[in-house]
Amino acid sequence: MIILVINCGSSSVKYQLLDMKSDDVYDILAKGLVEKIGLPEGTIKHKPAGKEGFVRDLPIPDHKIGMKLVLDALVDPVYGVLKSFDDIEAVGHRIVQGADFFSGSALVDDDVLEKIGICCDFAPLHNPAHLLGIHAVSAVLPDVPQVVTFDTAFHQTMEPYAYMYALPYEYYEKYHVRRYGAHGTSHQYVSQRGAKLAGLDLEHSKIITCHIGNGSSVTAIKDGKCIDTSMGFTPLEGMIMGTRCGIIDANIVPYIMKKENLTPDQMTDIMNKKSGFLGLSGVSSDARDMDALAKQGDRKAKIVLKKLTFDIVKLVGGYIAEMNGVDLIIFTAGIGENNPHLRRRVCEQLAYMGVKIDTEVNEKARGAETILSTPDSTVKVALIPTDEELVIARDTMRIVSTIEE
Ligand code: ADP
Fold this sequence. Notes:
- By secondary structure, the chain is α/β, with parallel strands linked by helices.
- Helices cover 39% and strands 20% of the residues.
- The chain has an eight-stranded mixed sheet, sandwiched between helices.
- Bound molecules: adenosine-5'-diphosphate.
């Protein structure tokens, strides 16, 4: 089944075209990125498998035109990989917020669209863009079934004591205020792959997944189900991230707003886009820049790197206690997959309980499935590259196959 996977941001469309033969047998036919939609000068970067791609700069006024560009690239006589649009059998979308409406992927219909719309209120940066993406696909491919996969769905198994905030209960009832988490597709995927690689029975296992990238979250997974996760009502909560502050004393928010005379939107922007590595270092949101600066002796970059380890260790330690043990700790995403120093620093803090990694293996491990722990380590440690697009494609195939039967 040929499936187009779409990840729509407010000004971007990331795409991947997969030929799914089965859950584990598939080819990636093309991938690409449309950026700066709505700005005077947009860009499309298209990379077909096995041949040269292209980068084109042109104005892309809206998502519908962006989507048309993607489809045109896929059927282009030189750079394309398909004969016609008709070859696309289904489209799968990544959706950031599904709240407690969705505990799994769903086929798009009016009811699903309405619920994603309700969730816009508490994912204002993401869900409206996802809806634009779905409508843009409907406009260009009206007869192709579309499936939505939610970042929050995997976390729906949390118990009320894990997802409730100790605020007046009416705010949960009236405004849906609770922990939803994010990156669920990634946590689910790497925990399943990791269990297989480590020879664990997922249904009887205690796993902690550390998705450490530009956005970062840590999840406790018991018997294959999420019991706790560090992101909260929105992806802001939890640990330090590229531009997000993670957990802070909530009283800081009104305090700074009053001092700096800021509106709620301005404060939201500061906490989400101007904090984290960027805010603390004053220089960059990228972990590689932090490493380079710290090597030159930059004090703030050193604080950022220490805090990154510190925050992960606090979460992992807490989750070990919540599960009364751990069998496997997994690192994934941009930093988790590519930064051996961070993995080593986190594991060193767990040496007291017998966690031991092979430092040579760890030093070399980058972006490929690897067991990092030594055979005598009490806990297995693994690097598992995440693949959210594959999960979306699998779910899309599964759901679309059932409607066709
Ligand atoms: P996003 O959350 O946007 O998907 P990623 O998972 O791609 O982000 O993570 C981005 C982070 O990963 C950046 O801080 C970057 O420095 C780091 N990173 C990505 N690739 C590498 C690499 N090859 N070596 C070291 N760090 C990397």
